Amino acid sequence: MSTAVAIVLLVALATYAVFGGADFGAGFWDLTAGGPARGAAPRGLIERSIGPVWEANHVWLIFIFVVTWSAFPLAYQSITLTMFVPLTIAALGIVLRGASFAFRKSVVTVRSRRVFGGAFALASVLVPFCFGAIAGGIASGHVPAGGKAGDPVDSWLNPTSLVTGGLAVVLAAYLAAVYLVWDARRADDTAMAVYFRRRAVVTAVVAAVVAVIGFVVLSSSAPHVFDRMISSWALPPVVLSVLSGFGALVLLVRDAARGARALAVVAVACIIFSWGVAQWPYLLPESVTVSAAAAPTGTLVALLVAVGVAVLIVLPGFVLLYVLDQRRLLPEEGVEDAADRAAG
């Protein structure tokens, strides 16, 4: 039963990385777009692309927290007590990012738009770094067992955490660039398609370099995870991630946006899956296994039933939202819907 819940949690993590990560990555490109005049076109595309879906994507994060504290309470306690600094920074960053994104579209002065735009962009970089640093701290054994607190600084500012945090930022930027190429193509904006295609190619190469550095760091700081990544069931996802990333890069160079988007999703999701499989059977590497950290069987059964109900009720709404967004049938944020005008 605990294995089933762990699989659900891993799938949710991969889903959040693929959807929520792209939203954060869009903020990275907002940050690097340049001044008001030069950056107007890419920022406009970013706002139109993430506006209808950015709030919905954080549902996956809430789902991850709820499943973790319900199914693995002592491990959740250890993680939150040890990682309270990056978790607090990430929470504040998510709030600041959302508020800034909303207010930037409402203010009229250039100075105010710069303030809110800067807050949105900086928070978009800080949040994925914190999440990646947390994952690196867990993988390298910096979270103690038994619901106890570890070092609040070294737990997330160690070599593994710094590399995984940087990798999270780069992967988010990569996904966002690939998605924005497709969105620009759908909007018949050739200039922006070329703009983000170039950035997607560059970030793909940077992501590969950072991933290689991450493997080197893991070999010394998290040998249990590293050994399983190259010699166990974690190896196939690693290989698939490499092949998908390379295939996406080739398609981006050849300007095949649709295929590149699908392969980019597979490449990033496989990184999450390989990390989860490499840690197995440990939830906290070499100290707490998934089965030992699990809540009573009755709790796990009730949780799986709740997850099944959520899939039946919530997932169709997500699918409808993304389909309507891809077909450009949703109004932009702050724009009155034609149906509302008709009803009025």
TrEMBL record:
InterPro entries: Cyt-d_oxidase_su2. The chain crosses the membrane at residues 79-103, 115-139, 159-181, 201-222, 234-253, 260-280, 300-324. The keyword Nucleus does not apply. GO terms for biological process: aerobic electron transport chain. GO terms for molecular function: electron transfer activity; oxidoreductase activity, acting on diphenols and related substances as donors, oxygen as acceptor. It holds the Pfam family Cyt_bd_oxida_II. Belongs to the cytochrome ubiquinol oxidase subunit 2 family. This is Cytochrome d ubiquinol oxidase subunit II.
